[in-house]
């Protein structure tokens, strides 16, 4: 009998599944960004789409919910397949329901939005190329730059900009059960192999679903969805980190139950992805005055800051370095150097990752799932740009901005100055509902094309090149470099590739 029903629903699924409904028209907010080459940048007209998980999910035939709060209606959703045939994702009221607004090249995400039907918490958006296709970025050998304003998000909140190896159509072609696709923000995956995703590979995640005990909007199902993740920016006004997370595979795959590993599973390290990553957080690497609110910090988080990330290729054509610069007040600020004994440098390299894992005594999952070279392979393939604002029901974001594990005095446990009691979701929702983050002025192109290494904003700025000698780890040359080519003593300007010379 079960087989008969399964066979029947598979048949229906082939015709009709994970539907779309149009009670609200899906109108993607426009967001412009810049594609750069050595001869300059040109504006691209893009748009953003909110992830499917945030959407109203109801019967295709009526306005009856398939999913409410943190529970599926099991009288409708009798199985993953049946649920996908009966239920649809609806269009989004971006500003009214989700607190998402755009203006020109700027995206604003508000933390709590009280809408007519619901109170929305946070959001996750993807950049689209057109209404049905995500914009795809191949990061290896290129540079990604954006401006961010974190002045209004503090302890416990995370305004994140990152890349994941999702399918460009949201999985619509690969999984016939998925009729919604990128237009409705489907196909999410990341290195935690999240199990709170409501539809995965064209079926619902109702089988085995357990509603969260402390999150009125979420639960965990029997399926998870995995793929490599490059966190360019996870931050609030206290701490920031950039973190590669490789996986065994290079594309999205589903996983089952606790075998998924990651945050949502009993054994964090049971899966095919690296949930920890190899992070560079200036505070965790020993520089406690590099990033924070006020002029006492090198990067002042009370002001907007430009964040530059370079995915540098070595002479072998493989990823050699993930480099970070900041630009603020017309000045280029090199990333802080690690001051932890045994971990050197100011960027994420294979050596940095190996040293960090050893010195901090962290798990070996980064290396187990491909390590730096595996991440290089993922970055050589197209990835989807994600921008989100979230809080953390699992560890209160303490891994980013406080001491974690709580009470630990081990090297690597101090990640930021937030109290270990901060970041409690219900406190944040009550105390800082109006918090928001903005991302703007996204630029992408070959190394050296998205920002002026002398800090000026206009490439034709006639101002004399900066003649002050460059600090340790700073840039001192390269094809598009117009700044100083001398290093402070005792460092030497060393060629890493045609576009990048560094004081080492
Ligand atoms: C959030 O903003 C709304 C609308 O401006 C205001 O009424 C409310 O008091 C604010 N809440 C807090 C906690 O600041």
UniProtKB/TrEMBL annotation:
PROSITE patterns: CBM1_1 (PS00562), CBM1_2 (PS51164)
Protein's GO biological process: cellulose catabolic process
GO cellular component: extracellular region
Signal peptide: 1-17
Highest rank taxon of the organism: Eukaryota
Reaction(s) the record says it catalyses: Hydrolysis of (1->4)-beta-D-glucosidic linkages in cellulose and cellotetraose, releasing cellobiose from the non-reducing ends of the chains
InterPro entries reported in the protein's UniProt record: CBD, CBD_sf, ConA-like_dom_sf, Glyco_hydro_7, Glyco_hydro_7_sf
GO molecular function: cellulose 1,4-beta-cellobiosidase activity; cellulose binding
Keyword Cell cycle: no
Its EC number(s): 3.2.1.-
Keywords: Carbohydrate metabolism, Cellulose degradation, Disulfide bond, Glycoprotein, Glycosidase, Hydrolase, Polysaccharide degradation, Signal
Stretches assigned to the CBM1 domain: 468-504
Chain segments carrying region Disordered: 450-469
SMART domains hit by this protein: fCBD
PANTHER family the UniProt entry points to: 1,4-BETA-D-GLUCAN CELLOBIOHYDROLASE B, GLYCOSIDE HYDROLASE FAMILY 7 PROTEIN
Entry similarity comment: Belongs to the glycosyl hydrolase 7 (cellulase C) family.
Name under which the protein is recorded: Glucanase
Organism name: Cylindrodendrum hubeiense
């Amino acid at each position: 009998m079960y087989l008969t029903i399964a066979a029947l629903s598979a048949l229906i699924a082939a015709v009709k599944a994970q539907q779309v409904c149009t009670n609200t028209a899906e109108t993607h907010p426009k967001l412009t960004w810049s594609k750069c080459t050595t001869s300059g940048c040109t504006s691209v007209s893009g748009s953003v789409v909110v992830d499917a998980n945030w959407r109203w999910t109801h019967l295709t035939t009526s306005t009856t919910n398939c999913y409410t709060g943190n529970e599926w209606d099991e009288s409708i959703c009798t199985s993953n397949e049946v649920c996908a045939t009966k239920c649809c994702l609806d269009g989004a009221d971006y500003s009214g329901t989700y607190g998402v607004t755009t203006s020109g090249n700027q995206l604003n995400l508000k933390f709590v939005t009280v809408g007519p039907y619901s109170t929305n918490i946070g959001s996750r958006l993807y950049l689209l190329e057109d209404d049905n296709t995500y914009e795809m970025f191949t990061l290896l050998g290129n540079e990604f730059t954006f401006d961010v304003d974190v002045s209004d998000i503090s302890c416990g909140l995370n305004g994140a900009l990152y890349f994941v190896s999702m399918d460009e159509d949201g999985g619509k072609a690969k999984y016939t059960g998925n009729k919604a696709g990128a237009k409705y923000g489907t196909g999410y995956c990341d290195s935690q192999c999240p199990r709170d995703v409501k539809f995965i590979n064209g079926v619902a995640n109702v089988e085995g679903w357990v509603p969260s005990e402390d999150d009125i909007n979420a639960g965990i199902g029997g399926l998870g969805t995995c793929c490599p993740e490059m966190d360019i920016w996870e931050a609030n006004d206290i701490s920031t980190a950039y973190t590669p997370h490789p996986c065994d595979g290079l594309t999205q795959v589903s996983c089952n139950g606790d075998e998924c590993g990651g945050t949502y599973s009993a054994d964090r390290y049971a899966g095919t992805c690296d949930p920890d990553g190899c992070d560079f957080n200036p505070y965790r690497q020993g520089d406690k005055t590099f990033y924070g609110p006020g002029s006492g910090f090198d990067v002042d988080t009370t002001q907007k800051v430009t964040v530059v990330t370079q995915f540098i290729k070595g002479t072998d054509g493989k990823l050699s370095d993930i480099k970070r610069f900041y630009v603020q007040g017309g000045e280029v600020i090199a990333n802080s150097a690690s001051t932890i004994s045994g971990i050197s440098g100011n960027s994420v390299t294979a050596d940095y990752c190996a040293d960090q894992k050893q010195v901090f005594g962290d798990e070996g999952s980064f290396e187990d799932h491909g390590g730096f070279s595996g991440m290089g392979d993922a970055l050589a393939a197209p990835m989807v740009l994600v921008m989100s604002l979230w809080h953390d029901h699992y560890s209160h974001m303490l891994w980013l901005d406080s001491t974690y594990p709580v009470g630990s005095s081990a090297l690597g446990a101090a990640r930021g100055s937030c109290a270990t009691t901060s970041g409690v979701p219900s406190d944040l929702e009550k105390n800082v509902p109006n918090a928001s983050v903005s991302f703007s002025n996204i630029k992408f192109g070959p190394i050296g094309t998205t920002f002026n290494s002398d800090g000026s904003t206009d490439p034709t700025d006639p101002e004399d090149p900066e003649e002050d000698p460059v600090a340790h780890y700073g840039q001192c040359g390269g094809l598009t470099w117009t700044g100083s080519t001398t290093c402070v003593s005792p460092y030497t300007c060393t060629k890493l590739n045609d576009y990048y010379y560094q004081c080492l």
